[in-house]
Hints:
This protein is α+β, with helices and mostly antiparallel strands. The protein has 2 domains: 2-127, Orthogonal Bundle (Helix Hairpins); 132-202, Alpha-Beta Plaits. It has 3 helices and 4 strands; from the N terminus they run H-H-E-E-E-E-H. It has helices at residues 2-72, 76-128, 191-202; strands spanning 132-138, 160-166, 169-171, 184-190. A 4-stranded antiparallel β-sheet has the order 1-4-2-3, with helices on both faces. A hairpin with a 2-residue loop joins strand 2 and strand 3 (169-171). The chain is elongated, with a radius of gyration of 30 Å. The two termini are 56 Å apart. The model is unreliable at 207-215 (pLDDT under 50).
Amino acid sequence: MTFELLGRVHKELSITGHAFYETILSISELVNRKVQIIRLHGQASTLFQHIDDMTATVGQQIVAQVSDRLLYQSHPDSVVGAIDQMLADAVSRVQELKRSLSEVDAQIREFKIETVHQDLLSLQRELALRSGGIERVIVLRGAAAAGQPLSALPQYSSAYVAAVLRGPFLLTPTNDLLFRPGDIVVLIGAQTELNQLVSWFTSQRSLTTSFTRSA
């Protein structure tokens, strides 16, 4: 009996220690990603400043060339040639800075996606422990939900629409929002209820017998 009890205690301590290690590792990775994002934002800000400085410098040089032309009556062809060369050099430099900015922006998006992915995994684990879940469904053409307002959504005790994505827009889930084919709908709630609710967005099968509408 004593050995069995010690075995159970050892097992519980091992599980707890492993969970604690995973938690510390997860926090460390999250902090590292956020530090990287802050650093990259700093680089992007510096690149923007360089572009602004380049624009200001070119403007000042053009003003100086025009002023010299007016003051000293220098040959107009030489002024035009100098300005053209300055503009060509400035355009080349700005394009280079924009390429660097695009690379930094891509890295920022990648780190943010990783952070969001980690947050979603944590959310899914926490929901799963409570028999809950989160579902991403696309409204299909001809589905029961297509053309219907959010108020027509079959009612459950816990499942509800968390967000609706339409093209580049994040729509607020209001009762008068009409679902369209191609809409991405994010659902959250009890997993058993989500499994039934998904069909409302993806098939024409009548679900009225399976749902309990609220008063």
